[in-house]
Amino acid sequence: MKIIATVFSFFVLSIGGYGHKTDIKLNGVIHLSKLLDTSRYAILEFDKANNYYFDKDAKPTTLSNEDIVKIEDLIEKRVSEYNRIEKDSAISITKRLRKKKHDPNFTWKGDFIKTPSKYYKQLMPIINSKGEKEVWVNCFCNTGENSDWKKSIVLMEDGGSCYFKLKINLTKGIVYNFMVNGIA
Hints:
By secondary structure, this protein is of the alpha+beta class. The protein has helices spanning about 1-15, 65-100, and strands at about 20-25, 30-35, 40-45, 60, 120-125, 135-140, 165-170, 175-180. The strands form 2 sheets. Strands 3, 4, 5, 6, 7 and 8 form a 6-stranded mixed β-sheet that branches. Strands 1-2 form a two-stranded antiparallel ribbon.
């Protein structure tokens, strides 16, 4: 019975389809049945010749399901921080513009990132010169006209919170170079 369960688990993980469940132990906590929508991920291979994102000594690597769960957790935390700051900014901007426009009903709604787990993500994993695993993550809320998004990097100007990117050092569990596109 154990062999059948193992073979079945391998089959489910190998098909890489929509929404398979993964039980992952991360930082001592088991994430039971974390739903990963694999149709929303593209793992792009690091190309040293067109390296815009990492140091010159970076080497391509792979990502495990555990890595992807960790990436999602770190994105969620960083987006929560961004949204908190955006909320504070929206309150401040609303107060200033109400005075300036002499309109007590004016409200600046802010540019929040809603449900980052629903974004499409391009992931480019590497091992840096210190032997640490890092990943460049490009997030966008829809694929639009980018039918090649699983093969080529999607670069957009503007678009606001529909597009954001960041780097993650998976070895250290830190997010850096977080950037949300501007609003045109």
